[in-house]
Write the structure tokens for this entry.
Amino acid sequence: MTPAMPLPALAEALRTGRGMHHKQDIQTALRTLGSALPAPLHQAGQTLAVGDDCAALPDGDGFLLFAIEGFISDFVAAEPWFAGWCGLMVNLSDIAAMGGRPIAVVDALWSRDDASAVPILEGMRAASAAFGVPVVGGHSNTHAGGEQLAVAVLGRAQRLLTSFDAQAGDRLMIAIDLRGHWHDPYPFFDAATRAPGERLRGDLALLPALAEQGWCRAAKDISMAGIVGTAAMLMEGSRLGGVIDLDRLPCPLDLAPADLLRWLQVFPSFGYLLAIPAGHTANVIDHFARRDIACADLGEFDRSGVVRIAQAGAEAVVWDLGAHALTGCQPLTVASS
């Protein structure tokens, strides 16, 4: 798809967008917690470090996974049922992105009264039923000044996917469910709330199956940073750079050129970026195609430390990780090529 704005302007809009700006907040937490954080652990060729989609703890022949998400109070007040649903959905995506399967959910909910809490809890209940993951406890306060929500999920992975183990020469691939609709006015592309539970559960199982096949080296779920911002986070975690070819990007059939920036900043209900050794790309595309999930090869990871977008043979820089940290989870020393 041809952008409605010149490629350098598109790169600038992505670089200064809200999603990427908010990801820099992680730097404050890392600096402040400092010595309270564990040092990176290298085990069986994989890197366990703070800043991944989940905390991962070695456990027997696998890993325990912990994920947590909090939601802006304005969103919870405006969309209480959907906020409750998203509380489970986004955490389950984090578990899947690391090659895991969910076990159970807990939540912390504040509301001004009982009536305000009910639609949030109903959204959580609906997602629990659809995804087949129980809510096993939490914290509730129905005498607060407003609505706030945080949800945490426990999972387990047999074989881990991380954000830190992509290698130069790996293919940057995307898997994204296009069977959805925009949830206006937010950047959410919702392919979940109207889908049958069997489909949702089967689609999430694609990620741990991919890990257990050994076809994927690293992964990250597409978050509020959007497609390009999430790619930048994955590249930063692996201390690499790379290119995202917009000509190869799967898009909804009705997406207009003027909406390309919105799509690049999308927060999809099912969307993952993957680092795939070149010999496995066809297997991975077929793996997702069997469940009608769009999957494409967007480009290559390299040692540049620079995140670029490309279209019609031209390139533009979105982020130079060697000059400016994004999350700061993996300080970058650019290797000579």
Observations:
- Residues 80-97 form the longest helix (18 residues).
- The first strand starts at residue 41 and ends at 43.
